[in-house]
Each structure stands twice: as C-alpha cells, then as structure tokens.
Amino acid sequence: MTNMKRRNFLRFLGGAASWPLAAGAQQPTKRPVIGVLSPFIDADSTFLRDLRQGLGARGLREGQEIAIEYRSAEGRINQLPVLADELVRLKVDIIVTASAPAIRFVQQATLTIPIVMMQVGDAVDQGFVASLARPGGNITGTSWFGPELSAKRLELMKEALSGIAQVAILREASAGAASITAVHAAARTLGVVLSVFEVRDPDELPTAFSAMADAGLQGVEILEGLIISNNIRPLVALTERHRLPTIFPDTSFVEAGGLMSYGPDLSEIHRRTAESIEKILKGARPRDIPVEQPTKFEFAINLKTAKSLGLTIPPTLLQRAVVVID
To answer: What phi, psi does 155 have (nearest 5°)?
Structure first.
C-alpha cells in the first residue's frame, strides 16, 4: 500500500468513530435523576442515609439505576426556595423532601415535576393534597395524623404525671391548626389547662421556656415542626435548665436527654418513601398514588432524666414504652 493510500485509509478509520451506531447496537440508558432537598442539619439527620437504604432495597442504587442530586439547607429555612428552584432548573425526574416548609417551597417551584413528601404531620390540613386516598396533584408520599398524635402525647403526659393540671404547648407559628385544635379537645377531656406558646424563630425558644417557668406550668408538650426538628439539643437543654417535664414528637429527643416522646419511626418513613419513588419511575402519576401513613410508632422514656426531675414513671407506662433509656 502506498503512503498516500495508507493515510487515506487511516483517515477513513478515524472518521468511522463518529458514525451513528449500527442498527441493534445498545444506546446508553439515561438514569433517572432524583432531586433530594433536605431542610435538616445534616449532622443531626438520618434523612439521606435512610432514603438511600430504602432505594437500594428496591434495586434503585445511586450511580447505577438512578442518580441523586442532593441539596441541603442545613437548617436554614431561607435557603429552601433557592434550592428548590435549583432542582427544578436541573429538570430532575422527581423531587423528594420533608417538612411542611420545604414541601411548600417545592410545591411553589413546580406544578409538573412529581414531588414525594415525608415527615409532615397532616398533608391534608397543610393543603398539600386533596385527600390521602386521592392526592389530586403532583404530590404524594407519606403523612401521619399529627392531630391524633398530639392528643395522644397529652394523654401520656397526664398518665406519667397524674397530678398535672397546667401544661404548656410549644408550637411553630406557621403550623396548621388541626393539631392544636386536637390538643385543646384532649385537654378538656383530661381536665388540663393549656397555655400555648408560639415561636417563629429558634432565637425565641429561650424566651418561651422562661415564660413557661415563670408561669409555674407543670409540664410541656412540644408539637412537631422544622424549627423543632433542627433544635433537638437546645430544646432538651432548655427543659433541663427550667426543670420542666416534657414530651417530644420523636425518639431523637429522648436519646438526647429529653424525658418522653411519642411519634412515628422517622427512619422507617424515610426508607418507605422509596416505594412511592419506584411507582413514579414505573409510570404512575402522583395524583393517583395514595398517601402512605406510618405503620410503626415509638413511645420512649428516659429514666435517667425522670430521676433527675424527681419523677417516678408508673410501671404500667414503662411496660408500654418501646424505647427505655436507663
């Protein structure tokens, strides 16, 4: 072969690399992209870890069957709308998020991208879905009955502290009305007088607890919310400083030194969210996927904290606790 013919032949081979693939050749499959927006402080949250576990258990492994675009507000609520808009601009296939403020910002950012929610007390009361059975929009996921749980916590506090008559309720000012309505109804049945304290910012928590102590209140029930979830240790420290027996919305507070808690197993909720994601990836519409409810609830008691407060927890109540910390 002459040098001229050889050069032409090599140019021909080099150009072949840019030709279309032959019929029947496998095109690379585009992995679905899951956008994950965390409103929590990562160091205190199992949110992303639990979600990955749930996805992996259903054969949806990051880097293989799916890709994940993760954004964390690190507890800064003012960052949530910015991060929600960023995920929408990336044109992710699904957005997963938790807590009422984060869900609301994502809802405002897109009416078309499917949204899978978790860790929200009452999705219907918050206006995220039309009903649990038929969500009706681009949102589905998991929600628990915040009002019923709030009433149950007051019952447990009354049982633990039989002589209690005056209780403080700490809630976030932006929370829905259903939970506080349910607590008031339970208080009337139990013969308990409530004093409600609302906070709009974490900086207001110390003032609220000082006011509770000054009023001579005998116990505190804390309702779930994003400010609450992102201030576990500060809240436990405030209850210790003012020596106020307190029941919290989930076990993480009791593990940090709080007296009692009652609520859903949040890690289980995070893992189960993978089921809704899988259904959407297979073609189901969020509007047609019923909102799930928790199946596992945990009642936790910290006996060390009870002892420091001079309290004796009734044996019948201890027997019902799923988690007991000595």
So the answer is: -60, -45
Predicted local confidence at residue 63, as pLDDT = 94
Q: Dump the DSSP string for 122-159.
A: -TTTTTS-S-SS---SSEEEB---HHHHHHHHHHHHHH
Helix (H, G, I), strand (E, B), or coil: what is residue 5? helix
Distance CA 99, CA 6 (A): 67
Domains and CATH numbers, the chain: 33-143+265-294 (3.40.50.2300), 146-264+298-325 (3.40.50.2300)
What phi and psi, each to the nearest 5 degrees, are found at residue 219?
A: -170, 165
Half-sphere CA count of 134, side-chain side, radius 13 A = 1
Residue 92 in tokens:
């992710």
Cα gap 64→80, rounded to integer Å:
28
Enter the tokens of residue 18. 């840019």
Cβ 68 vs Cβ 9: under 8 Å: no
| pLDDT of the residue at 176 | 80
| Residue pair 137/287 in contact by the 8 Å Cβ criterion | yes
Contacts of 111 (CB under 8 A, 6+ apart): 137, 138
One-letter amino acid for residue 159 of the chain:
E
Q: Report the largest interatomic distance among the alpha carbons of the chain, rounded to a whole angstrom.
A: 105
| Residues lower than pLDDT 70 in the chain | 1-29
pLDDT of residue 51: 96
Dist CA 201 CA 203 (whole Å): 5
Here the tokens at position 86 are 């960023």
Beta strand pairing call for 260-264 and 297-302: antiparallel
Q: In angstroms, rounded to a whole number, what is the distance separating the alpha carbons of residues 322 and 217?
A: 28
Strand order through the sheet with 193-199:
193-199, 166-172, 219-222, 246-248, 260-264, 297-302, 323-325
**What digits encode the pLDDT tens for the residues 183-220?**
999 999 999 999 999 999 999 999 999 999 999 999 99
Residues in the chain: 326
Nearest Cα neighbor of 262 from 249, 275, 243 is 249
